[in-house]
Design brief:
Mean pLDDT: 94
Number of helices: 8
Helix content: 40-55%
Strand order of the largest sheet: 1-3-2
Largest sheet: 3 strands, parallel
CATH architecture: 3-Layer(aba) Sandwich
Strand content: 5-15%
Low-confidence stretches: none
Radius of gyration: 19 Å
Distance between the termini: 28 Å
CATH class: Alpha Beta
Number of strands: 5
Structural class: alpha/beta
Shape: globular
């Protein structure tokens, strides 16, 4: 969700106003995704690298995050949305971890859609954590190194029950993955929007989804194989 700070700077506003405006876009995307029947939506809210930002900005972001967890709970419950957080929670302050825990607990039974919040998240950390878990299985004698498969890594990620994303949307003309879901995005389609996140509208969201729907997803096969229904190994 790129461009909050730049959106504010272009309007000679404090960066925090960009984050406040971006929160409205989050609500729109969640509501439209639920209406369209999208089963899983992952939002990159705060990266492991973002901890390096000025302390005042980090504290403000954490406060906004905690406040929106509380204010958006009725929306999640109304629309049958389950909330799951992925990332290193040990770095989150108590004013965030407690409302996050409550929101996850109160929405755990919801089955209409799952929203994953990547907060204090870094994909390299996630993959390292998965490797450590597998290493402990090997060290304990419960897994032979020669038997390790890609599925072992998948099953030891933060949210192993979630399928790989079909689509990654990058806003603000950003053209990099930014340490986000590096393992899971191996075959995902990427659509780039020129709009800053606070400007990301319903029409632009639909445009991104339409562009995705026009893509041919072949997973390494030829178009003829896909047309013939040849199965691929992912």
């Amino acid at each position: 969700m790129d461009g909050n700070g730049r959106w504010a700077k272009e309007r000679m506003l404090p960066r925090v106003e960009g984050h406040r405006a971006g929160a409205k876009t989050v609500r729109m995307v969640v509501e439209e995704s639920r209406r369209l029947g999208i089963r899983f939506l992952t939002l990159f809210a705060f990266s492991s690298e973002n901890w390096g930002r000025p302390e005042a900005e980090v504290n403000t972001l954490m406060g906004l995050f905690a406040a929106h967890l509380e204010s958006e709970l009725p929306l999640l419950l109304q629309h049958g949305i389950k909330l799951t957080a992925i990332g290193d929670r040990t770095r989150l302050p108590p004013n965030v971890t407690e409302p996050l825990r409550r929101t996850e607990a109160q929405t755990a039974h919801q089955s209409g859609m799952e929203v994953l919040l990547a907060v204090s998240y870094g994909s390299r950390d996630e993959i390292t954590s998965a490797a450590q878990k597998i290493g402990r299985l090997v060290a304990s004698g419960n897994l032979n190194p020669d038997d390790i498969t890609s599925e072992h890594i998948t099953q030891n990620l933060y949210a192993p029950h979630v399928p790989d994303p079909d689509l990654l949307i990058r806003t603000s003309n950003e053209l990099r993955l930014s340490n986000f879901l590096l393992w899971q995005l191996a075959y995902s389609e990427i659509v780039v929007s020129p709009l800053r996140w606070p400007e990301f509208s319903k029409d632009e969201y639909f445009r991104c989804l339409q562009e995705y729907s026009n893509r041919d997803r072949r997973y390494g096969l030829t178009q003829e194989q896909v047309a013939a229904g040849v199965a691929s190994a992912k």
